[in-house]
Write a structure and sequence with these properties.
The chain has a 3-stranded antiparallel beta sheet with strand order 2-1-3, with no helix packed on it. The two termini are 25 Å apart. The longest helix has 6 residues. It has one domain. It is globular and about 35 Å long. The protein is mostly loops. Helix content is 6%, strand content 11%. The structure holds zinc ion (3 copies). The site of one zinc ion has 7 residues, from loops. One zinc ion binds next to loops.
């Protein structure tokens, strides 16, 4: 997908080993939270789980700040599924790839 080049300058400033979250566009490890608060699971919109964290200051996997209200970047092995409460990465819910910013 071609996104144009309007964010080019900003991206150049980010110098880190972290991957960029393709959903929120933020660098994992620098961002305190993913900005995508909702997930589409098989056609239903759920607010993502923002209460489940590991014991570190920052998430060991996706690098967000471990604080209630923060969202993991999609693909993090800590994130819980808002539908079945299982590990999102490995739960049985189908068609759950799409996360996005819901409301304002
Ligand atoms: Zn993100
Ligand atoms: Zn995480
Ligand atoms: Zn699930």
């Amino acid at each position: 997908m071609e996104n144009g080049n309007d964010r080019g300058e900003r991206l150049m400033e980010i110098e880190s080993d972290y991957a960029v979250c393709e959903d929120c566009g933020l660098s994992m490890g620098d961002a305190a939270s993913c900005t995508c608060n909702a997930i589409n699971i098989d056609g239903q919109v759920f607010i993502r789980n923002s209460k489940y964290f590991d014991v570190n200051q920052d998430c060991h996997d996706c690098g967000i700040e471990n604080k209630p209200g923060n969202y993991h970047h999609y693909g993090c092995d800590i994130e819980r599924c808002p539908k079945c409460k299982g590990q999102l990465l490995s739960c049985d819910c189908e068609n759950k790839r799409e996360v996005f910013q819901y409301g304002n």
